[in-house]
């Protein structure tokens, strides 16, 4: 199945390309920047086209992933070329405008499923992620809809089906109010000329998390955030309410109205109900995720660990030497590698990682046991200490010859394993017959 | 060493009592509520006194942990009774007022170290937590100061020493602005009558995290938050700046000034510099902590795991049956236990947990090997499959008798281990001599 992603060289489009490719689909991406397109082509092993219409013609599924302010224009350009029997989707953060445009410009016989994946391009997978679909009644009954829905569920996503206008109403709060308050906070810290790095020294967990959310949002494409605020007419009321509440609380503090402040906070808490408690729990998990990770790392100082650099995707295997601030130091072939804990994933089961990463070397060694020995029992026992398997058995007079294949990742390691293996064999009633080095 | 915590039956005071007790100190707590005090006494194994002055007289260290609005009054009551040579501290979120009061009312010869632990009573430890100390120049040179400083560092805390007025200036932003914006958001959601639970269905990671921060704050004692806003005169300017920025952005959105919005956001991003990127990384760790935990859990379905209920501190060991939404289901002795993942800690190394939790049963079994067998090698090998040790060895003609002690947690488990052990022994050149059941 061919999937064309219109605007797939950047952001969420690129994420989708990578994700869908990893799930076995044939992916085509388009984009205006040819150089970037070629890079993405190489990086992800997908096909790049500098032509939206061409890509639309080729796709069994066509996904529009372009900025909000040009979404309508791109749909007008692309939708008429989507083949009958194909599926047309978008992934825009607003839904009324693109839903209408896709229905209007797509041919009869094309299924339209507008979507809003509620996450950014740093999500590790679809697990637990929210995806909102806003198909019309007609398309909701289509075969394509079933396929999309089942695929998303299988990937662990939380899928919701809404009318486009209900979606936009909810998003005015979920995205509109959230972004608005966070960008206002960012701008306030700038106006107050707060030294962010310095202030972080004195951070409470909540402040650190808020700073990190600000960093997360203001570091992204500002046009996306402008469009989310500006293309949703329901946001104006939200802004006004927020400003009112800020002024109300300011007045309470200024007039030292302690009971008034407490009343306001209690009423908000009452409105949240059980959700307040859940929030406290959830934020605990989030806040202490890094703390726990660092505690776990410290327990493993001196041990061999595998560390994946999330930026380069390189995996480093070495002895953990030090954990300090945001960094860990790994000793690797006599050299030291310093890695940012925030940008790594740590694996403590190093053997499993090695098996995935490296080609194993091996050597074969034959051992004589008494005929009545059960070699399966011996194998099970030795497997706890060695990466090995039995490759040959035959009886020889009153003896039994068992050939083991021992695996390792380097000559040195194999040599050491050989020594150890022979020592054990001698002590569990076996005697060496011959050995064969690969 | 005796530590008296004035106001130690609740909140951070109670946390401190538990923490310090776990570190081997003798702890006394005081509080107005005798019933609650008695409960804490029993729960934490500390001593409760319904008398602040008495507790102050007894402590080698006296820590004031009472609400901001009564801190000054309590210091006035308690400080004169702290013994010469003792240490007087507070843990209030503001520092100018209590620092002055302690210096004023404590006897000459009492060391005063005002402090502000920047975390709440849900912190798992002092690891990575910020603690600010605001001692005067004189007390900074004291022996007590060194002791406190070294203790905090050893526990992994990030310790900073500031002048009280600098502390309060920083906190006007770190706590003042943060709480103010979060409480304003909470009040806005209430005013807009947003169904929080329903809205969470459609949450982006940022919205979910913001909701959780709101829940975290509004679920706590509102008087603390009122006092933090009201006892710090620097906060008024902060409020005003925030309101201004909110209005500024509102105007940009209303007039559809896309470039103006982008400019404001870019300037804020510029002010954040590298901190924006760090924020994105940090929030990724926080946001995906739960996702990763759930992914890890799903990998372990069908396996035996240990799950600690963070509320009851009970540990459940069982087979992981299901993971759904916030819950995991454990099969335990034929029954099913459903636990909230947000309130649990999961351990995959079940053996380690069992060793800590349960008393081990054992049985001894003697095995004859050839005299030239190295029993250390056999022991090392068997330890990979069994929890065992060698407790006796002696030579017997051309044989060697080795007595193993095998451990387990139930008779059934031991019986199964015994069967397995005997089967292995037979196959590695050993023969049974006798056995002895404990």
TrEMBL record, chains A, B:
The keyword Aminoacyl-tRNA synthetase does not apply. It comes from the Archaea. Keywords: Oxidoreductase. SUPFAM superfamilies: 6-phosphogluconate dehydrogenase C-terminal domain-like, NAD(P)-binding Rossmann-fold domains. The keyword Oxidoreductase applies. NCBIfam families: PRK08655.1-2, PRK08655.1-4. One of its GO terms (molecular function) is NAD+ binding. Residues 1-283 form the Prephenate/arogenate dehydrogenase domain. One of its GO terms (biological process) is tyrosine biosynthetic process. This is Prephenate dehydrogenase.
């Amino acid at each position: 199945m061919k999937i064309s992603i219109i605007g797939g060289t950047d952001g969420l489009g690129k994420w989708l390309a990578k994700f869908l490719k990893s799930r076995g689909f044939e992916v085509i991406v388009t984009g205006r920047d040819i150089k970037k397109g070629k890079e993405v082509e190489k990086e992800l092993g997908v096909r790049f086209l500098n032509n939206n219409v061409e890509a639309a013609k080729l796709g069994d599924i066509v996904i529009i992933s372009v900025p909000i302010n040009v979404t309508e224009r791109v749909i007008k350009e692309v939708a008429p070329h989507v083949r009958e029997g194909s599926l047309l989707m978008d992934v825009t953060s607003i839904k009324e405008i693109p839903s209408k445009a896709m229905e209007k410009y797509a041919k009869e016989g094309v299924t339209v499923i507008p979507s809003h994946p509620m996450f950014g391009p740093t999500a590790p997978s679809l697990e637990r992620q929210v995806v909102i679909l806003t198909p019309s009644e007609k398309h909701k009954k289509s075969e394509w809809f079933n396929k999309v829905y089942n695929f998303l569920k299988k990937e662990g996503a939380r899928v919701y089906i809404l009318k486009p206008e209900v979606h936009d109403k909810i998003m005015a709060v979920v995205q509109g109010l959230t972004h608005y308050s966070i960008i206002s906070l960012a701008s306030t810290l700038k106006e107050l000329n707060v030294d962010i790095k310095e202030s972080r020294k004195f951070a409470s967990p909540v402040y650190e998390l808020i700073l990190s959310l600000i960093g997360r949002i203001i570091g992204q494409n500002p046009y996306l955030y402008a469009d989310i605020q500006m293309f949703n007419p329901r946001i104006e009321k939200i802004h006004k309410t927020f400003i009112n509440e800020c002024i109300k609380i300011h007045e309470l503090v200024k007039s030292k109205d302690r009971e008034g402040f407490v009343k306001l906070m209690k009423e908000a808490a009452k409105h949240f109900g059980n959700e307040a408690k859940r929030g406290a729990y959830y934020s605990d998990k989030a806040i202490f995720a890094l703390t726990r990770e660092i505690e776990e790392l410290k327990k493993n100082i001196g041990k061999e660990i595998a560390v994946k650099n999330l930026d380069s995707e390189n995996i480093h295997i070495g002895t953990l030497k030090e954990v300090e601030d945001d960094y860990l130091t790994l000793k690797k072939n006599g050299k030291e590698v310093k890695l940012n804990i925030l940008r790594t994933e740590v694996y403590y089961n190093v053997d499993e990682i090695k098996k995935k990463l490296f080609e194993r070397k091996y050597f074969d060694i034959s051992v004589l046991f008494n005929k009545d020995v059960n070699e399966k029992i011996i194998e099970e026992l030795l497997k706890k200490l060695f990466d090995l398997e039995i490759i040959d058995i035959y009886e020889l007079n009153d003896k039994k010859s068992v050939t083991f294949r021992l695996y390792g990742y380097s000559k040195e390691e194999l040599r050491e394993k050989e020594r150890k293996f022979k020592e054990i064999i001698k002590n569990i009633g076996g005697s060496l017959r011959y050995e064969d080095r690969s």
